[in-house]
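2024-03-11 09:14:02 INFO queue: dequeued item Nucleoprotein/polynucleotide-associated enzyme, len=176
2024-03-11 09:14:02 INFO validating residues
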Amino acid sequence: MAISLQDQLLKAGLANKQQAKKAKAQKKKATKQEIVASSAETQLSLEKARQEKTQRDKALNKQREEEKAKKALEAEARQLIEHHKIHISDKAEIAYRFVDGTLIKNLYVTQELYNQLVRSQCVISKLDEKYYLIPLAVADRVETRQPSWIIRIKPSEQVEEDDPYAAYVIPDDLMW
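2024-03-11 09:14:37 INFO prediction written
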């Protein structure tokens, strides 16, 4: 078995036992400091990793909660439309034309429903590519949950029946 350098120096008389003890103590102290330093670095990196994981988990939970809330609002709006939709008779003959985005659509209604649509007493709602009529109060509730599902028709300007000048058009270039 090989003799250590320390033992060789002691045998040769180049070092004494006190110097050997001192060297051992310094070596132990240096090793201990290295261990403490590396464990501190490890602790810092572990703590940083924990904090990053916590932040990722919070962001993921927030996203899940938002999706859950969105689905709940959609379900509420769907339920409102399905429970409050106005039944349109099969005998409806009047074609009511309206704009959905960039498309012009037709909805066949009765005269009574046509009058309600014109007076904005009922509103058209879109659900699963189908169109339904719902009362105005329900439409407001649905619109708070899903604004894209409600198609509001702007009422046309009504001319008073007693207006004697209704037949006369006012020219655009009229100066006062």
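2024-03-11 09:14:37 INFO annotate: The mean pLDDT is 84.
2024-03-11 09:14:38 INFO item closed
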